[in-house]
Amino acid sequence: MILGVLLTSLHQATEAAVPVTIGVFVDRAVATGDVEPLIWCVLMLFALFALLSNAWKLGARQIVRAIEYETHELRLEISRRVLDPRGQRTGLRSGELLSIATSDAEKTALVMRAVSVGCAASTALIVSSVSLLLVDVPLGIGVLIGVPLVVLGIQALSPLLTRRTSTQQEAVAQTTALATDLVGGLRTLRGIGAQHNAAARYRHSSQTTLRATLRAVSTAGLQDGVSAALSGLLLAAVAGVAGWFALSGRISIGELIAVVGLAQFIAEPVGTLGYASQVLAMSRASAGRLASVLSSPPLVSSGTATVVDPSKPLLQLEGVSYKTLSSFDLDLRSGESVGVLCYDPRDADALLTVVGGRTSEHSGVVRVGGVTIDELDIDALRNTVLLERHDTDLFEGTLRSNLLVESPSLEHVMTAAGAADLIDELDRPLADRGQALSGGQRQRLGLARALLASPPLLVLHDPSTAVDAVTEELLAEGLAEVRSGLTTLVLTSSPALLGKMDRVLVLADGVVVTEGLHAELADSDAAYQEAVLR
């Protein structure tokens, strides 16, 4: 960055020296008719243009490298923050975070362009002002007074431009988030016939973004106009005064040419300062959004303990209250399989959030292997407790790459997960999110991935909602076989899965209302029968 600023400043300094050199050329060679000064002036111009062209080429290359590197680093930093296993409290949707990680990171890094061109333009103005002072002191003083006034006039619009740019970027992020949500839920929207309402909502958001963009662009255009007008007035004033001085014999013809050339040249760095001001305003707005993500506190804290006690219950909840849960207790011993039936889906969501260590806002105590979840290192927690929800995330690549684990028992585990039909297609390429697969195939592939990871505690949420009854029975048998001797917690209403559990807990209104074997509950509990038996 420093090297780029020095080289681009050298370029602007040599550009400012061009009209001065031409003025000297007129006075020393053309006016006198001497050949030797003419040769020296030509050689000087040749060297000057060679220097300024190479300084610009090398300097611009350094600035672009610095900007691209900084953009890359900012994107990595945002990605690390968003993917932090502790979570983040930004309150932003995926589309908004995507917009910040791409567009805002790029615009924030452009502050380096604003700084570099601003320094180069300032160098040009300093060289031009000094040259004018050497020609005529009043002219130089007039430029030294006039240029700051022009710059201040340009800067007066910067706060308005920053506000409107920030509003425009927020509107773009919201529209991007809405588009991401609509694309992800397109099948569902079509299924319920809501695609027209969704399109109308997106159209309204897009029009709001368009209006915000037009306001920001209009302000930028006004700033450009003010910059050009003030620069032109300054040029006219300097050229007029210099012409009068030449007519009165106060300065020579060569000096007049140098002064007019410098006055005309000054319009370029003044305009560049206006451009730098626009870029700075845009970068400041993006930097604020970027900083809001980077400074957001994590959802949960991470302790320092990295080892759990295998002699203690692998999962223990004592008097846990969170959202709809009320004084919930659970002891999950090592090697035990426990099913949980929640009459209210909100109870299931609350329990999964607590067990997965994705909140610190609950009351009561949660222990993993005898260590409270707040004291356990977040990586140790993730290595001990694997939470697999029914909505599986898949990525571009192949089926094999989405499984993440190469294992001699790969085919056996896939069969146990009810995904035997996908064994011959492991090297099949997948589109984004596995859109070419059915919902049941995606769900079974996610279950196979979880089983292959073989965590000490596997927590499953409705792993069979998208499969038929026959596959569900095979999946239940396979899960019991693969997880034999390991600890498993399954939140489901599937009778096939509940029938394979060592015991079943039933939650209603956030508390455990009954507990027992599936067969016993199915025979004696009418509410259980209604919720489970099909």
From TrEMBL:
Superkingdom field: Bacteria
Sorted UniProt keywords: ATP-binding, Membrane, Nucleotide-binding, Transmembrane, Transmembrane helix
Domain ABC transmembrane type-1: 2-282
Transmembrane segments: 37-56, 114-135, 141-161, 225-247
Subcellular localization(s) per the UniProt record: Cell membrane
Membrane topology qualifier: Multi-pass membrane protein
ABC transporter domain boundaries: 305-534
GO molecular function, one term: ATP binding
Main location: membrane
One Pfam family it belongs to: ABC_membrane
PANTHER family the UniProt entry points to: ATP-BINDING CASSETTE SUB-FAMILY B MEMBER 10, MITOCHONDRIAL (PTHR43394:SF1), ATP-DEPENDENT PERMEASE MDL1, MITOCHONDRIAL (PTHR43394)
Protein name (record): ABC transporter ATP-binding protein
Species of the source: Kribbella yunnanensis
